[in-house]
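Students often ask why inverse folding is considered easier than folding. One informal answer: many sequences map to the same fold, so there is more than one right answer. In these notes we will look at a single instance of the problem. The structure comes first.
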């Protein structure tokens, strides 16, 4: 290239950068919206009654949502109790029986009726394991802590604890319930609570309450917790064991005030149940519902005057590290904005700083966060925050407490309005006038609780409309005799006319009600987001337009069932989005009147500068090679390379744990490389080129066998326990026997050796809607025969059973019929057996005779109620817990259905055999550090590390990121309920894996072909299966001939036991 051309290129680059800069500046100025503006809105807890349920207001309170019970209370004019607390405490009599008495009157003690999962009810101090106090290990110091000052009370074990006692109240009024408690070591979950008064729930929500666990952080100091590049390493979450007291309220932040319930004067029988997590119930109190003064009364009560307003410099409190949170997933996050501040003098766009709190994970209603701050002098302060709404046009509602108390009514559910990006402003009223807070000199706390806010009314209205529409669909399906297509959609005869009013007299009125409900909800959503239109509002508008069309022309409804179904799916997503109000906070300011807040939003030029700096820093290889390392590797250090095929967040958690725990313990440096999914092909290329890593984790379960045949892997069962750097480590067999199921290792066996170790392991279960089964009077099935018995009832009611069509779902039938995929030596297909054929017939009959849907969105149809039962796994479980809170208490999971069999003793049992699958870990045969690689694997796969990693991942992603560890001990430390854990463990007992063999990829491919030919094309099952077997055997023989030298034990080609001779061991 000559000089002239070089000048042209340089000029072009500079000109292009200039144009980009000008464009950014113009767009920034044109699209910039005004700052967050407060607005007026109505806010109350009383809920409207369901317009689709006749005389719902006459139903017993135990069947109604709390807000509707409040409406009944308001109509009857019930007053609040205003007297002293009626507090009850626990003790034990001389025989050791648990007793309860009124505070200050121990002579009133009476024995408590009830039971505990571990036996009789006990006083905490009388439990043998706590005789010397409650002991736990502080993860920040690895030292044992003994707590001896826990106030005595009822001990509630991990299982269900039930107590029944009597309480006498002095007057007929509305009361609130306060519980004092101390949660013990558990599974990083909350304790479930329910209570009845005189054998009835005071409202339906009383069956599902929580005592929240609290969490704090350690390793949060920047100077001590950074890598060698200067990137901050996120502080870890740990349980904060502490005495707590709470007035019971909706755990999801659905309502403004704590629960209130009506009790007549006199004595009542109260039954309370505590479940899931262990703890001590120190006291139970029936108290006066809190009454909060409004802002004007608050100012008058605290002597407000202009001369008492603080006049000094603004007092800044960084918020990235709170005192505690109640959600393990809510914590400090990183932000690279030009103006985002930190406790240190570093630029957030040059290094990684965890310099904000919250973000996308600070979104769930009911989550509580507390910070401590200090003020220099007594006075009245403006209170401000630098904050950002994470979702476009979505306002965020939060309850604000100072020193544990709501200062005035307007702080019960304060609205943080949407703004385009970061904004710093004082808390203010609808006229943009700042509120003043009275604070005395010294330390204080501020507690912020996530709330759903006034949109609770839209939430309930949408839930009820969806339930009603689902019921309507079922009625129309019966009337029109609609069928299902193979894809699960409705098929209705378009050439027929239907007089729906003849069969559903209220349908015209219902269409009008739906239309009016949706337009009301749409307007409310806009108003409560500052007259802005969030993306989720479009589904409500679509629903309004659809039912407006139906209102005008009822005859179009039968042929629009699929449109209605799609609308319900959209509304379901909207329902979750309304409750999702994520927000990030940078800092808090206490300031004088009219404080002029500093710049908070990056200008176009500043954004451009940040982008340029990051662009050039991306070329610094050392920044990424040393990311997460606290010490630079020297030439004398042993360093192993690990490939991980997972996303960046997963890898960062692993890197942090390695730096903090593994390297410091064993002195082995680890270079972690994140590679794309399906990295096995890349690793094989690296192996051939001589540049393969030492270790690969998240390795496909079927791949180790292929690599082992080619000599690319190290047999792991050759590693024995030993000592390294003064630290002991486990051998293969010790780790396997202590923490893993034997069956999981079957696919990794080749020629009497195991070449991989399981890392993750799936599980399957049967999920069903308990509310629908109760309505139909059905018992959940235990066997496939039970399923065939209930199918007519489900079908007649318009419901479907979910079991997706595919070769993998044939496996349980094959195993439960006693079949195998391959013969003992792994040389031929075993689908020729009668057991395999019987299983094939039974499986295909699900779709031929019982009309199972081939494929469906089980999650959406389970939510809508169309598929109240089906088989699925962890992904579905996570979806339900994360995105379907409206189904809490309406679903359950059980082990997979099986087939009844008789053992050698004549005892009947249910065979639930199935496979699981998952990822694995391997050590490459080319590694020069095999011992160090094994030491890393045994650390990574150990009980404590797998449990900790699971907690850290769940902290990042919530239950949606539940870690599917294959470690049977670690899974017990994850926050499953005892019932859920029992289902998983029961199903894992029936785990059965298929040995890998040469050419086995043809099995799934041609088995699916045979299934398609039988089910979709109507061919003979026998012919289709036999054709598939011929092709499978042909390919297996071809691969055996290709690799015979690698697999043969001797010269005799008939000896094939070399493939997996440990199969029966």
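Output (designed amino acids):
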């Amino acid at each position: 290239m000559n000089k002239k051309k070089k000048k042209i290129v340089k000029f072009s680059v500079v000109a292009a950068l200039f144009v980009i800069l000008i464009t950014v500046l113009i767009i920034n100025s044109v699209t910039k919206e005004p700052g967050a503006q407060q607005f007026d809105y109505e806010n109350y807890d009383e809920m409207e009654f369901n317009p689709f349920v006749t005389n719902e207001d006459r139903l017993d309170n135990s069947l109604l949502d709390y807000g509707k019970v409040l409406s009944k209370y308001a109509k009857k004019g019930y007053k609040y109790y205003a007297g002293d607390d009626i507090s009850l405490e626990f003790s034990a009599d001389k025989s050791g029986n648990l007793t309860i008495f009124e505070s200050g009157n121990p002579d009133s003690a009476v024995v408590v009726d009830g039971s505990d999962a571990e036996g009789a009810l006990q006083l905490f101090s009388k439990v043998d394991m706590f005789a010397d106090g409650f002991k736990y290990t502080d993860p920040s110091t690895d030292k044992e802590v003994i707590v001896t000052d826990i106030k005595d009370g009822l001990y509630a074990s991990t299982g269900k604890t039930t107590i029944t006692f009597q309480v006498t109240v002095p007057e007929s009024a509305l009361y609130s319930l306060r519980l004092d408690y101390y949660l013990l070591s558990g599974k990083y979950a909350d304790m479930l609570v329910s209570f009845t008064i005189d054998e009835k729930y005071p409202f339906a929500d009383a069956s599902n309450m929580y005592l929240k666990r609290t969490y704090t952080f350690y390793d949060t100091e920047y100077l001590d917790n950074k890598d060698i590049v200067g990137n901050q390493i996120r502080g870890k979450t740990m349980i904060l064991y502490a005495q707590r007291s709470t007035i019971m309220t909706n755990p999801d932040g659905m309502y403004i005030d704590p629960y209130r319930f009506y009790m007549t004067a006199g004595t009542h029988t109260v039954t309370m149940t505590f479940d899931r997590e262990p703890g001590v119930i120190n006291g139970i109190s029936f108290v006066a519902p809190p009454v909060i003064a409004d802002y004007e009364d608050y100012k008058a009560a605290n002597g407000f005057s202009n001369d008492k307003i603080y006049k000094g410099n603004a007092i800044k409190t960084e918020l990235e590290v709170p005192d505690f949170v109640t959600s393990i997933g809510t914590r400090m996050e990183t932000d690279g904005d030009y103006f985002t501040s930190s406790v240190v003098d570093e630029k957030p766009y040059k290094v990684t700083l965890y310099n904000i709190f919250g973000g996308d994970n600070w979104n769930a209603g009911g989550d509580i966060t507390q910070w401590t701050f200090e003020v220099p002098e007594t006075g009245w302060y403006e209170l401000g925050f630098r904050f950002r709404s994470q979702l476009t046009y979505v306002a965020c509602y939060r309850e604000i407490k100072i020193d544990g108390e709501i200062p005035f009514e307007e702080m019960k559910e304060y609205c943080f309005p949407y703004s385009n990006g970061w904004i710093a402003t004082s808390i203010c009223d609808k006229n943009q006038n700042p509120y003043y807070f009275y604070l005395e000199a010294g330390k204080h706390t501020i507690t912020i609780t996530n709330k759903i806010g006034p949109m609770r009314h839209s939430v309930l209205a949408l839930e009820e409309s969806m339930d009603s529409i689902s019921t309507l669909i079922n009625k129309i399906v019966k009337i029109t005799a609609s069928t299902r297509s193979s894809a699960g959609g409705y098929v209705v005869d378009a050439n027929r006319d239907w007089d729906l009013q003849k069969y559903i007299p209220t349908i015209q009125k219902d269409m009008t009600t739906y239309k009016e409900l949706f337009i009301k909800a749409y307007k409310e959503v806009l108003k409560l987001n500052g007259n802005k239109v969030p993306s989720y509002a479009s589904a409500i508008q679509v629903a309004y337009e659809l039912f407006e069309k139906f209102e005008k022309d009822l005859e179009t409804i039968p042929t629009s069932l699929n449109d209605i179904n799609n609308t319900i799916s959209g509304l379901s997503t909207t329902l979750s989005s309304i409750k999702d109000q994520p927000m990030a906070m940078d800092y808090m300011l206490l300031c004088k009147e009219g404080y002029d807040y500093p710049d908070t939003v990056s200008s176009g030029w500043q954004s451009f500068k940040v982008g340029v700096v990051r662009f050039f820093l991306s070329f610094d290889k050392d920044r990424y090679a040393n990311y997460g390392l606290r010490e630079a590797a020297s030439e004398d250090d042993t360093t192993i390379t690990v490939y991980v095929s997972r996303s960046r967040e997963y890898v960062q958690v692993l890197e942090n744990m390695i730096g903090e725990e593994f390297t410091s313990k064993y002195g082995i440096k680890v270079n972690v490389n994140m590679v794309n999914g399906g990295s096995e092909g890349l690793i094989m290329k690296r192996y051939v080129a001589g540049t393969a890593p030492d270790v690969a984790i998240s390795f496909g379960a079927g791949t180790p066998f292929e690599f082992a045949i080619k000599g690319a892997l190290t047999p792991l069962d050759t590693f024995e326990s030993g000592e390294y750097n003064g630290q002991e480590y486990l051998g293969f067999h010790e780790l396997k026997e202590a923490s893993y199921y034997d069956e999981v290792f079957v696919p990794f066996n080749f020629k009497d050796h195991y070449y991989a170790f399981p890392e993750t392991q799936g599980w399957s279960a049967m999920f069903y809607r308990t509310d629908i089964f109760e309505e139909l009077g059905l018992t959940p099935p235990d066997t496939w025969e039970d399923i065939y018995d209930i199918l007519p009832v489900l079908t007649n009611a318009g419901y479907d059973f979910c079991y997706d069509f595919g070769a993998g779902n044939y496996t349980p039938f094959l195993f439960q019929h006693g079949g195998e995929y391959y013969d003992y030596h792994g040389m031929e297909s075993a689908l020729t057996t009668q057991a395999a054929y019987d299983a094939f017939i039974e499986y295909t009959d699900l779709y031929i005779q019982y009309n199972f849907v081939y494929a469906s969105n089980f999650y959406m149809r389970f939510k809508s109620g169309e598929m109240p039962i089906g088989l699925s796994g962890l992904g579905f479980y996570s979806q339900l817990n994360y995105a379907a809170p409206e189904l809490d208490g309406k679903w359950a999971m059980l082990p997979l259905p099986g087939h009844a069999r008789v053992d050698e003793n004549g005892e009947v049992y249910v065979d639930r055999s199935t496979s699981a699958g998952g990822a694995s870990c391997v050590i490459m045969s080319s590694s020069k550090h095999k011992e160090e690689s094994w030491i890393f694997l045994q650390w990574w796969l150990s009980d404590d590390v797998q449990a900790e990693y699971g907690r850290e991942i769940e902290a990042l992603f919530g239950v949606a990121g539940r870690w599917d560890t294959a470690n049977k001990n670690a899974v017990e430390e994850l926050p499953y309920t005892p019932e859920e854990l029992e289902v998983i463990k029961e199903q894992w007992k029936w785990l059965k894996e298929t040995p890998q063999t040469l050419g086995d990829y043809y099995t799934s491919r041609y088995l699916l072909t045979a299934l398609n030919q039988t089910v979709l094309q109507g061919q003979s099952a026998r012919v289709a299966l036999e054709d598939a077997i011929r092709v499978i055997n042909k390919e297996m023989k071809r691969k055996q001939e290709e690799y015979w030298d690698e697999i043969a034990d001797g010269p005799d080609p008939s000896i094939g036991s070399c493939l997996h001779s440990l199969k029966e061991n």
